[in-house]
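Much of what follows relies on a compact textual record of a protein's fold. A complete example follows; check for yourself that the lines match position by position.
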Amino acid sequence: MHLDTTTEFGARVVRRLHEEPVAWLTTVRGDDTPQPSPIWFLWDGETILIYSQPDKQKLRNIAEHPVVALNLNSDPSDGDIVIITGEAAIVDDEPPADKVPAYLEKYRDRITDIGMTPETFAQGYSVAVRVTPKRVRGF
């Protein structure tokens, strides 16, 4: 997916991907039930990095059905909608969350707010997921 940052929409999507703290990742269970989950994420310009606790349903869903949707919350006037669809993969070659400076910069205060250190967060949220966006839409 290429975001044309010369357009108002493309620039807004990139800004929000960098600034928004929470997105909704929707995976699909084996019985075809959608399962939205709030997640923290890091946009690197091409893919979205997510860390998860092991043995979560979203990981089983991704392993069985890698097509996902990622939604950013609307603004207070129900506008500024961003919906990304793509493919997710559980990846083993990512460094732990506490070794990713951009992730720590974005979430250090939130990690502290939930009573964790970067190290304990990385231990608890030890499974890395990469989402490769295929389409983006919104208004």
In short: The CA atoms of residues 3 and 32 lie 30 Å apart.
